Amino acid sequence: MTSTDERWTGSQLRFVIRMSLCHSAGEPQNGTMLCVDAVRLENSDYTGIATQLDAGLLALLLMVLEWSRPGLPSPLRPICDLRVLNHFMKEARDAEVAMKSCGEGCTMSEPVTVPQTRVDFDVWENKNGLEQAEEVQCGLWLLQQGLSSLRTSVTDTALHSHIDNCIRNLLSINAVLRSLNIQEYTPPTSATGLEGTWSVTSATDLLQVHVNFLRGKVRLLLLDAQACQQDVS
User: Fold this and answer.
1) Is 34's pLDDT higher than 50?
2) Per-residue pLDDT for 161 more than 70?
3) Distance between CA atoms of 112 and 133, rounded to whole angstroms?
4) 122 — phi, psi (to 5°)?
5) Which of 63, 104, 212, 228 would disulfide-bridge 117, Cβ 3.0–4.6 Å?
6) Rg (CA), the chain
7) Are 9 and 58 in contact (CB under 8 A)?
8) CA–CA separation, 143 vs 9, rounded Å?
């Protein structure tokens, strides 16, 4: 049984989402790796994800966003539901489409370093889990740096919202990785000289790399995550 309660307080929307995704014995339904009793969040950052989402996915997204806040502990259970990543991929594609249709105020002020998105499956499968995770975490960090740089140079306010969503989603993916017992990544002091990277000079190219990286290496890492394999065994 699911019930929602929405209250406006100034510019903030408060969601009170009560859910039961678990059997009485505590086993998850429909492959969902989390049992949700109640989620209470009050923050304008979450208003954009409330529409056209089923309640289970909405609860997962709200919790992942909350866990992405600095200083909070890792989630108690692995987040293995790929609907979360699929939602982030959709928002990345929305940002790419918005950029392609933008007229003025949508250019990058300087080139940015981005991760390679092409996957050589022989090379990928020969890497151990730690190496794969570090490659993905480095790529997420590069994309976050690149999108933050783009945010400062873009003047189109509609694009600001798309870029902010993308940056927030990258932080949320890091929270998902923490839930999978993947060691937190320590970024380098500079992106110069990093292996497996290249430089882009246009905002469209940056957002295309963002989409391809999520649906490629990030998805592969989540599909093969040991914590998820153990959780469903």
Assistant:
1) no
2) yes
3) 22
4) -65, -45
5) 212
6) 18
7) no
8) 34
- In SS3 terms, the chain reads as CCEEEEEEECCEEEEEEECCCECCCCCECCCCCCCCCEEEEECHHHHHHCCCCCHHHHHHHHHHHHHCCCCCCCCCCCCCCCHHHHHHHHHHHHHHHHHHCCCCCCCCCCCEEEECCCCCHHHHHHCCHHHHHHHHHHHHHHHHHHHHHHHHHCCCHHHHHHHHHHHHHHHHHHHHHHHCCCCCCCCCCCCCCCCCEEEECCHHHHHHHHHHHHHHHHHHHHHCCHHHHHHHC
Specify the pairing of strand 12-18 against strand 38-42. Answer: antiparallel
Stated length of the chain: 233
Tell me how far apart the alpha carbons of residues 2 and 12 are, in angstroms, rounded to a whole number: 22
Which burial class, exposed, middle or buried, applies to 12 when counting CB atoms under 10 A from its CB (0-12, 13-18, 19+)? middle
Q: Which residues contact 188 (CB under 8 A, 6 or more apart)?
A: 194
If pLDDT is split at 50, 70 and 90, which confidence band does 201 have?
Answer: very high
Q: Return d(Cα 136, Cα 142) in angstroms, integer.
A: 10
- Tokens (6 digits) for 214: 């999520």
Amino acid at 151: R
What is the model's pLDDT at position 175?
Answer: 85
Find, among 59, 66, 6, 56, the residue nearest to 30 by Cα: 56
Mean pLDDT of 43-63: 50
Higher-confidence residue of 73 and 126: namely 126
Q: Give the strand pairing for 12-18 and 197-200.
A: unpaired
C-beta of residue 224 within 8 angstroms of C-beta of residue 180: no
The reported pTM is 0.71
Tokens found for residue 99: 């950029």
